[in-house]
Amino acid sequence: MYSHHLGRTPDPDGVTTGARVDMSNGDAALRSGFTASDEYYGRALLRYPAP
Fold first, then answer.
1. CA 17 to CA 47: how far, in whole Å?
2. How far is 48 from 45, CA to CA, in rounded Å?
3. Tens of pLDDT along 1-49?
4. Positions of the region Disordered (predicted)?
5. Rounded CA separation 18/25 (Å)
6. What is the 3-state secondary structure (H, E, C) of 1-51?
7. Which of 1, 6, 14, 17 is within CB 3.0–4.6 Å of 10 for a Cys-Cys bond?
8. Tell me, what's the pLDDT at 36?
């Protein structure tokens, strides 16, 4: 999911946090966390600039 949504590999803390979220809340919660992040938003603005 890091590669797909953020275009990078996870840092060590991201692996730990991501695994914990995924195991306790599932893939949808993890994906939601990625797509709600400032990092994802910044990438989206670069790919789809506002008119």
1. 27
2. 5
3. 999 999 999 999 999 999 999 999 999 999 999 999 999 999 999 999 8
4. 1-20
5. 10
6. CHHHHHCCCCCHHHHHHHHHHHHHHCHHHHHHHHHCCHHHHHHHHHHCCCC
7. 14
8. 96
